[in-house]
Amino acid sequence: xxxxxHPEPAQxxxxxxxxxxxxxKVYPKAVSGPVRRAKWVxxxxxxxAYYLVPWLRWDRGPGAPDQAVLVDMTHARLYFFFIEIxxxxxYYLTGLLILGAIGMFMATSLFGRVWCGFTCPQTVWTDLFxxxxxxxxxxxxxxxxxxAQPWGPAxxxxxxxxxxxxxxxxxxTGGAWIMYFQDAPTVIPQLLTGAASTQTYFFFxxxxxxTYVFAGWAREQLCTYxxxxxxxxxxxxxxxxxxxSYRTWRGEPxxxxxxxxxxxxVDCGACFHVCPTGMDIREGTQLSCIGPGASSPSRAPPTWxxxxxxxxxxxxxxxxxxxxxxxxxxxx
Length: 332
Known about the structure:
Layout: H1 34-52, E1 69-72, E2 77-80, E3 83-85, H2 90-111, H3 114-119, H4 121-137, H5 140-148, H6 153-179, H7 184-193, H8 198-218, H9 220-226, H10 229-233, E4 244-246, H11 248-251, H12 270-273, E5 317-319, H13 324-331
Antiparallel strand pairs: 1-2, 2-3, 4-5
């Protein structure tokens, strides 16, 4: 007779592991240097263009709007200086968008995430919000200490001043966006006196709120979790692309400055303390890296990072490509 086997009792299923992780607040440290100065110039130009372009005038004759750049929803026209686009000519706009996308692809393949690190609106307004926050609350260590303190008059005053300044910038941003769809000298007095339409106030509040939330609260989370660009940017990079990277072959193994068997990295944490997304560049290229060059010593003050004060070579994090022949020549 065949032996009857009894099935083993089913084991209780293991508790599922949650994939959710609470946000770890990032406290970027202020840096300086030629790349940071260039980034301030780009930021100033982008903000100036956004806020001032609606005020430019362009004479188109009687009966036509004299605003240089205007999206006239009432009469279904798009005006850009001497260009006037009607709804049936939307293929011109489509062509411009395609050319813009190809330009971004080409810039990424040549210079890395230069769009994300310098000209993306999220980066520009987040940089502006962090600058205001740094003016009011202090640099990295001061902000960490302030958040760790119990609530009191001093902390409340600094936090209130910070958020009031953020809301002021967000309101100016929302108001400027409205001016691209209505005549700027007309809509601003209407907004201030309560004479604007309900739709105008709705979109003004919408863009004010999104600017305040995205640049003041979401920050790096929008770049890491919401933006689609990091998901396919790796397909456009190769060994010749310009990007900031950590020289593992020099930095590892990490150790103290006086250790003879350690690499050049003293594990001070300076590279990710200055990163606006809180990324550790020593772990390689990641989705959250926007390529601003913050971890490169070329953007650090004279005494930053500490490797400059130690008997070790500098530039562990380097902005550029590092072909094999240059690495071999350096080792020799």
